[in-house]
Write a structure and sequence with these properties.
Helix content is about 0%, strand content about 40%. The chain is mainly β and about 70 residues long.
Amino acid sequence: MSAAEEPEEAPPWRERHGPQPQVYSWPPGKRPALSIRIDGRWRYCSVHMRYTYPDGRVAYQVASASRTGP
């Protein structure tokens, strides 16, 4: 099993970066969720927005991660 790459924080978009990313958002109660690894532990969090950049990168804005699973 290979180690997962460490995620990187997406910088705020600026005009000089080229085309804007597509932004998807979900209303409360309809948001998808992710399990993310923080400090060696899996955390459950809901997704507020997804940013899809023209170069293929994807970034997620999530709520604070809970200490327990779903």
